[in-house]
């Protein structure tokens, strides 16, 4: 829960033959949660510039 919005998600990890992660996807639901995470990630990336 962030800012009163419940966030449901699942992480999907794909590994190569060497056991190392080759792909990492996160699926998030509800639309309110997606919009909140999108906003927060944008703010974090701006700070990293």
The helix content is 25-40%
Listing every helix as H and every strand as E from the N terminus to the C terminus, the arrangement reads EEH
Sequence of strands across the biggest β-sheet = 1-2
How many independent structural domains?
Answer: 1
| Uncertain regions spanning at least 5 consecutive residues | none
Mean of residue pLDDT?
95
Tally of strands: 2
N/C terminus separation:
28 Å
What does this structure look like?
The structure is a single chain. This protein has one helix at 31-48, and strands at residues 8-15, 21-29. It is of the alpha+beta class. The chain has one domain (8-48). Strand 1 (8-15) and strand 2 (21-29) form a beta hairpin. The longest helix is centred in the last third of the chain and has 18 residues, at 31-48. The chain is flat and about 40 Å long. The chain starts with 7 loop residues before the first strand and ends with a helix.
Describe the structure using short key phrases.
alpha+beta; two-stranded antiparallel sheet; single chain; flat; 2 strands; 1 helix; 49 residues; 35% strand
Outline of the structure:
The protein has 1 helix and 2 strands, in the order ββα.
SSE blueprint:
Layout: E1 8-15, E2 21-29, H1 31-48
Antiparallel strand pairs: 1-2
């Amino acid at each position: 829960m962030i800012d009163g919005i419940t966030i449901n998600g699942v992480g999907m990890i794909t590994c190569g033959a060497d056991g190392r992660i080759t792909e990492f996807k996160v699926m998030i639901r509800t639309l309110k949660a997606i919009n909140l995470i999108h906003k927060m990630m944008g703010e974090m990336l701006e700070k990293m510039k």
